[in-house]
Amino acid sequence: MGKYSKNKILPQIAGSMLDWYMYPKDVAKMIAKKEKSKRNARKLTQRELATRSGVTLASIKRFEQTGEISLVSLLKIAEVLEKKVLFSIYL
Question: Is the CB of residue 42 less than 8 Å from the CB of residue 24?
């Protein structure tokens, strides 16, 4: 097969894919960190964000510490912290 045989290329591709793979929990923590940064940039306390978004203060604290939050609550927070939140829905 020559220089670029399947047996040599696939391990390289698989290795490079693993280099950028993030576990879901890590992605959630990264999102939480970014949203906390946006909240701080807007000089909002957790309590103020809770009041404006309709998400409980406890949920916001848990989200910022662990990354755990419901999708609906995350969308409510994003609505307060973002100028626009756009999502495509495919039916």
Answer: no
- The angle formed by the CA atoms of residues 24, 41 and 60, to the nearest 5 degrees, is 45
CA angle, 38 as apex, 37 and 39 as ends, to 5°?
A: 90
Q: CB-side exposure of 6: number of CA atoms within 13 Å?
A: 0
pTM tops 0.85, yes or no: no
Percent of the chain with pLDDT strictly greater than 90: 64
Q: What is each CA distance from 42 to 1, 14, 28, 49, 76, in whole angstroms?
A: 59, 41, 21, 10, 16
User: In the chain, what are the domains?
Assistant: 23-81 (1.10.260.40)
pLDDT band at 83 (very low <50, low <70, confident <90, very high): confident
* Packing angle of the helix pair 46-53, 71-81 (nearest 10 deg): 100
Query: How is residue 50 annotated by DSSP?
Result: H
